[in-house]
């Protein structure tokens, strides 16, 4: 099958977008490498403290006028952006595949999910409405208005370079705040492609800024007195050790979304034919680099034949997944993002084997469609004989692996879900409504799947997460994001 044309040509410099200007960073310059070819596709600067300070200053200066811009007018800027995103849909998707490695269909899904957040934020005149009561006491009225706060920082991870900052950015600017986005420096192109469309849509300079880099930029945001709040999506250690405590120390509101160890429970009464394709995308889609990916498969079947007949089908599907360049439309799984991530996943497979797991499917030397180095490629890997408490069950591997645990009943499966340390998106496959309800009721999980393998909330629902996967109160997306990016101002009037 023909390979789709790559959108990024040559090795361009990815600039910062500050105050409506494209500026090259004065920091160290690093290469952005396509994980399929291992060739550089761009260069990006690791921005300095001065550069993040300049972006915050521009955002601060833009805030008063932007706040005074009526919500309906702010929505019209977003509607123009929405139209441009749709017109550039395929190009934006290909950029994600080229810089991240995911398949083009996975990128198209990511683009769609990102755009949906812009669509929801276009309803801001309604979403931002307050409450009012007449005569709370004799001749006294009370009402609540939602007001923007100022400058917000948005920090993204490497695995959804396009979509994740859009869980926050459209709501932040729709409510009248101004923003500085810090994408992962591993995949900086997607956010610049959006910022180019923001510029074309005519947003005033300083409202939407992008500063590339690493810890210096993040620390510069966390310590900056003019930043009111932060949304962060990334790993649990960064969330717990850096983001949340530092936001607390500097008095910033924060949404902090961390890692995940998702358990998928299989009941013997599930619809097997419908379940297995769902499991394949859950465990191996995006090469397992998804915060909603299944990591542990808990099959409820104490001693019966169901376990083996189910596993035979899982293996038969998994070993036929086509691995290669995501710009080849026939490919079903791309590489992991970089060689270090591959080494880390290989390390976990070794740990699992030492802990007593058995390799039912070995993806360590996969067959790749096309002539590419195997530097970042891994095939689906299935570890059987896993037990609750093993590291391959409990720790986030973030790769195309499946740790299979055989459990005796639903109670044991729910206990397993509730004992892993991160609770983003556990799911159950069953045709029994009572079991489904018990699972939903008892499981600790921000997002719960019933016969759904990837529990991704639509843009008008919050993107939830619990214990170990989330710190904060409100979540990104939808009405909760509107609440997060505004303060409730309560006014009480008496006119004599
Ligand atoms: P990461 O924590 O390494 O990096 C996230 C961001 O924080 C990046 O922009 C990075 O530059 C910055 N950063 C990293 N370490 C830092 C430090 N010590 N100080 C300051 N800044 C730092 O995460 P990642 O590897 O880019 O992303 C993968 C992780 O994100 C996985 O754990 C995955 O589960 C998680 N994730 C969670 C969700 C969710 O909704 N909960 C969604 C997507 C990804």
SS-based class: alpha/beta
| CATH superfamily heading of the largest domain | Aldehyde Dehydrogenase, Chain A, domain 1
CATH class of the largest domain: Alpha Beta
Shape: globular
Provide a descriptive summary of the structure in words.
- The chain has helices at 49-68, 71-87, 89-100, 104-121, 124-127, 169-174, 189-200, 215-223, 236-249, 272-284, 306-318, 339-355, 391-394, 410-419, 433-442, 478-484, and strands at residues 13-14, 16-18, 21-23, 28-33, 40-46, 131-137, 140-148, 151-155, 178-182, 208-210, 227-233, 253-257, 262-266, 294-300, 358-361, 381-386, 401-407, 427-429, 449-450, 470-471, 486-494.
- It has two domains: 13-258 and 469-494, Aldehyde Dehydrogenase, Chain A, domain 1; 262-450, 3-Layer(aba) Sandwich (Aldehyde Dehydrogenase, Chain A, domain 2).
- The strands form five sheets. Strands 15-16-17-14-13-18-19 form a seven-stranded mixed sheet, sandwiched between helices. A six-stranded mixed sheet has the order 10-9-8-11-12-20, with helices on both faces.
- The longest helix is centred in the N-terminal third of the chain and has 20 residues, at 49-68.
- It starts with 12 loop residues before the first strand and ends with a strand.
- By secondary structure, it is α/β, with parallel strands linked by helices.
- α1 (49-68) crosses α8 (215-223) and α2 (71-87) runs antiparallel to α4.
- The protein binds nicotinamide-adenine-dinucleotide (NAD).
- Residues 155-160, 164, 182, 184, 214-215, 218, 233-235, 238, 242, 257-260, 291, 396, 398, 424, 463, 465, 469 line the site of nicotinamide-adenine-dinucleotide.
